[in-house]
Predict the structure.
Amino acid sequence: MKMDKSFNNISNELNIEAYVYTRVCDMITDQCKDVVRNLKRRPTFFESLKTSQTLSNIKDIVKFDDAKINIGGGYDSTTGIFTVPWNGIYIFSCTIMGNAGGAVHFQLNKNDQLYTAGFVAKSNYGAQTVNSFAEFRTGDKVYVKHRSSASESVRESHFSTFSGYLLSK
């Protein structure tokens, strides 16, 4: 009788441990699936310029018009603005090539403030790339803007690009 009770106690403890183990495994599996799902939908965009763009005003925004990747739909090619969908650390990269050997003064803006400046000197096929890491909040705006009052032209045919990626939350 005493042995049956001990056996039942051990059996119950093993059942409880097996249940807890199974639940922990299920929770870990669910968390792994969430991580993979989040990676697949992590805000990412890569845009290029199909057609040249003349910037004649210091307020002009470069409107990259060919979406190669726009996961999360944060980049709007009609405005040239990326709206940050999630808080986190992002990396942005912009390459500008001057059209017909001309100079281009440009800057990467974060919420209407200069974040990184770039300059393409007058030369055949002159280009410059600026890269920036920054912490952003949901709703922040990022875009490439002209920073000169002189009229300047940005080269088309996918020589000029703008991209961004959520690095970490």
